[in-house]
Amino acid sequence: MDKSTFEDRKVIISGPMHGSLRHDSAHKHVTGTADYIDDIPEPAGLLHGALGLSERAHAEILSIDLSAVAAHPGVVWVFTGKDVPGVNDVSSNGSHDEPLLAETLVQFHGQPIFAVIAETRDAARRAAQLAKIDYRDLPHWSDIDGALANGSPLVITPMTLHRGEPDTEMTNAAMRLKGQMRIGGQEHFYLEGHIAVAIPGEDDEVTVWSSTQHPSEIQHIVGHVLDIPSNAVTVNVRRMGGGFGGKETQGNQFAALAAIAAKKLGRAIKFRPDRDEDMSATGKRHDFLVDYELGFDAEGRIHAVDATYAARCGFSSDLSGPVTDRALFHADSSYFYPHVHLTSKPLKTHTVSNTAFRGFGGPQGMLGAERFIEEIAYAVGKDPLDVRKLNFYGQPGSGRTLTPYHQEVEDNIITRIVEELEETAEYRARRNAIIAFNRDSRYIRKGIALTPVKFGISFTMTAFNQAGALVHVYQDGSIHLNHGGTEMGQGLYTKVAQVLADSFQVDIDRVKITATTTAKVPNTSATAASSGSDLNGMAAYDAARQIKERLVAFAAEKWEVGPADVVFLPNRVRVGEIEISFPDFIKQAYFARVQLSAAGFYKTPKIHWDRKAGRGTPFYYFAYGASCTEVSIDTLTGEYLIDRTDILHDVGRSLNPAIDMGQVEGAFVQGLGWLTTEELWWDDEGRLRTHAPSTYKIPLASDRPKIFNVRLAEWSENTEATIGRSKAVGEPPLMLAISVLEALSMAVASVANYKVCPRLDAPATPERVLMAVERMKRV
């Protein structure tokens, strides 16, 4: 699309785009009137489903006795994998390695083996506990160490990124070091768990309401298990109570089970697992173990990096391939590696198959890179921020713009972002004050860190970078909007409605936002990869453009003026010397038989990727940011407080600053949880023990920084022709929380007078901080 298309937007100040409009459902969230799937009035005859879960981590199924389950009062049907009409598989990538219901082999504790359909949810859940299953146990491992020790297979072909001569340059480097970092996983812990309702139709038709980020994926999977074409399956999503990536593929099994039962019994079916079952049976963020070797000079300038990224992927591939790929794509963080060799190791473990989570591997890769910088800073005795700035990517022509995957960084603003935050957060003065405080404090130690973010925007699977939208303008001038993106609280619906209102220059309340449905916009990509607004906003803009072109042609002919004399103004249209209200103008166009509906489409330009070669341009552009955090730790207990955080984040020219601020703040707190309090733990039998709020600790409101200053870089504007020159905001700000871990690390390092890198792993729970303090005392 021509860049000049968007330059004109700078002078259009009356439209709602770039304005801080409230989230379209904000008042409904506050008052409790927003309808989620469990709030929809239940159809007559609705039945409820429950899962029968494995009690072994890895075992052969010798026999299954479900007679007591079927005999329980209220039970209507019990079914197993053998009852699946089509293919008993819900894998999202065509690998056929993820059975809907395990038949002869279970590969993680909590894997679904059968499903119960009953008159009530309580009856279904109680009946599911009555199964008698005989197993023959097999060897199992639930973590990366166990997978490595047992020569575990990989769930997918690994990827390697290579540039330069890392072996030679590592040998020639003035200084070298080796290390290892453990990075924990994370549970999505949405407010609304997984849920699906299936309603049978005539012939082979079925309609599914699913809490999913990927309606077309649900459509495909339901058709797959029922052995019916996609045109028989309609999937609807109005909103989710949180997604964070966990509803990209993990809703497949619940929708498929509901659809199978609905078609078998001819009644509506609802599956809503409780929190324990949800957490046990659905995937999480991948754990990583990063082994690295660094070559650098006495100034701290990186010469060579060699690193391996092993990941706990679970029993099947799911999205582990692209997740571990994206970890490698972000293993450079904001830094130029002259010579580099990076390899992924997606390991099979006997745990639930891990999946997408906000950042999609990028946070793990970026966290490893910040550890590299920290290691080097302690080795050369410098402030880590100075080492960071020394290694930043340069501007075009500097010879320091090529990523490990051979994409040029052409839009680099990281130095400006970091230096502006360094000044406004008074980083230097505060760091000096903290060092002085630590010198005199016996038990409480402080730390401060300023870390950058550079995050690539686009799906690395090129085909996913497309979107459609359907726009109708009705006779009264009201507008109907539907697109392929899903709303999970992030404000996508509001932003795309703003784009449409701006295009027609009408008030936002003229635009009706409707539920995402596969019946209106087909073959949609998941709302993921931070691309929802980029893709769907442009698709809606394209639909509006088509309608406006017809309207301009109609007006030019009717009033005998040139097309340039037809101008859309706020809630009216100027045609030559006259002005007509928008509703009147539309009504006249209708009577002139002008088509007032259009299907818009958009595909991201410029991107391409060759995974086998490890080369290409997987990202359309980069989003940047920086965060400065100050912490205090108690060296006697390992407990800590986050005293202050300052953030400056780049969203380009924001489509909605209020929503974007909320996204930055929320992402930071979610990243804070990942790096501090949220710890997944499996016991020796492979059972997930952190499966409820009682054992899994997400951040509370009291865990946010006591002083929390967040700003958007208002001077930034995307150099690429994105919608309104905006930038994605979903995933990038999560990695701002890395500053918290780095600040905790500095506080721990003070115990040994900053002589060595504490190598503080994530999550930095109080126990882990205390153990790091004790290590420092022995230095």
UniProtKB/TrEMBL annotation:
SUPFAM superfamilies: CO dehydrogenase molybdoprotein N-domain-like, Molybdenum cofactor-binding domain. Pfam families: Ald_Xan_dh_C, MoCoBD_1, MoCoBD_2. The keyword Lyase does not apply. Residues 31-139 form the Aldehyde oxidase/xanthine dehydrogenase a/b hammerhead domain. GO terms for molecular function: xanthine dehydrogenase activity. Its EC number is 1.17.1.4. InterPro entries: Ald_Oxase/Xan_DH_a/b, Ald_Oxase/Xan_DH_a/b_sf, Ald_Oxase/xanthine_DH-like, AldOxase/xan_DH_MoCoBD1, AldOxase/xan_DH_MoCoBD2, AldOxase/xan_DH_Mopterin-bd_sf, Xanthine_DH_Mopterin-bd_su. It comes from the Bacteria. Signal peptide: none annotated. The keyword Oxidoreductase applies. Keywords: Molybdenum, Oxidoreductase. Gene3D superfamilies: Aldehyde oxidase/xanthine dehydrogenase, a/b hammerhead, Aldehyde oxidase/xanthine dehydrogenase, molybdopterin binding domain. It is an enzyme of class 1 (oxidoreductase). Transmembrane segments: none annotated. NCBIfam families: xanthine_xdhB. This is Xanthine dehydrogenase molybdopterin binding subunit. It comes from Rhizobium aouanii. The gene is xdhB.
